[in-house]
Amino acid sequence: MSLLSKFKETLICLRAGKVTLPYPRQARPLPERFRGRPLFDAMKCIGCAGCANNCPAREILVYDVCQEVRILKYLGRRCTYCGRCADVCPEKAITMSKEFENATDQIGDIQQQLDLFMSTCQRCGRCFKEPGPLEQLQMKGYRADDLGKERWIYRSKAYLESQPEVDDIKIELD
Amino acid sequence: MLKNLCQKMFGRSLWVYHANSGGCNGCDIEVLNVLTPYYDVERFGIKLVGSPRHADVMLCQGPALRSTAKALKRAYEAMPSPKLVFAIGSCASGGGLWYDTYNVIGPVDKILPVNFYIPGCPPRPEAIIYGVAVAVGLVDKKTSPVKIKQLELPIPRYHPDQLSGEGELVVYEKAEKV
Fold this sequence. Notes:
The complex is a heterodimer. Chain A is an alpha+beta fold. Chain A has a domain at about 30-130: Alpha-Beta Plaits. Chain A contains 4 helices and 5 strands, in the order H-E-H-E-E-H-E-E-H. The longest helix of chain A is centred in the N-terminal third of the chain and has 15 residues, at about 1-15. Chain A is elongated, with a radius of gyration of 25 Å. Chain A starts with a helix and ends in a 36-residue tail after the last helix. The longest helix of chain B is centred in the last third of the chain and has 12 residues, at about 125-135. By secondary structure, chain B is an alpha/beta fold. The model of chain B has no long low-confidence stretch (mean pLDDT about 80). In chain B, the strands form 4 sheets. A 5-stranded parallel β-sheet of chain B has the order 2-1-3-5-7, with helices on both faces. At the A-B interface, strand 5 of A face helix 4, strand 7, helix 5 and strand 8 of B.
């Protein structure tokens, strides 16, 4: 009885065949719509910060160093590869690559930093028309992030003259 | 240095302990998928054990929560001494999407010294095997920080109110360098 069941088991196992994938020697082909690490193209980027606004993990930081240089930093620690930044990018500067072998011993290895040149008007010397205070509150892209501490910061501007600019809304406090 | 030490210490087989400190179970499924016959890591000697006292490697999934951070720390301290900690998934390595909520302390490396990070949400089973291979020293890591500049600086900048002269002869008094 028990011997017969063993034979049966053997037959079932033989029919199943070999299922182990030969991963370390040969990678399985990736699915067509697989999204890996986003790659940023500095030549196409116009620095609109739409990706920074739409990132659900808030992993893309934007900082204006001076009038003409904007730094866009992708940290990638808690990036879920959702692809929203690539969807929203008007210039298609972000591509979701198929890289998934991102294991490191330093978490800073996944970072990407773009130093963008924001060209100015020769007449007025500004990049574009400055939004009003209400628009500035709504447009999160024109914020100053803390690149040193790698934090995402809103800087609200008060309407009243008695109140100067205060850093009153801060997200991700330590 | 660390690589050589790892090869010496963990040359034969890694026994892994699987610690979830508040993740969504996605990374757990991927880790268990690594241990199934499809990816069969037992041929490399990697084995899942139920107790941290038997383990060499701790696989952390999920962010460190306020309620589970203490237990995670205790499990880490229970492991015998040459030990590695892997942060698997974006929650463990970065804090996850809800990194700033009231009950999340943050990434696991705020609580434990993490040796290797495997980002991804969840990482593919291949990525986890690759991370273990990086840790043991079989392959080199592929990623490195990228920094790209659009243009070389400084760029001269002109202002209209600094122009003097008329007609063909226009002089810029000073060209600012950015």
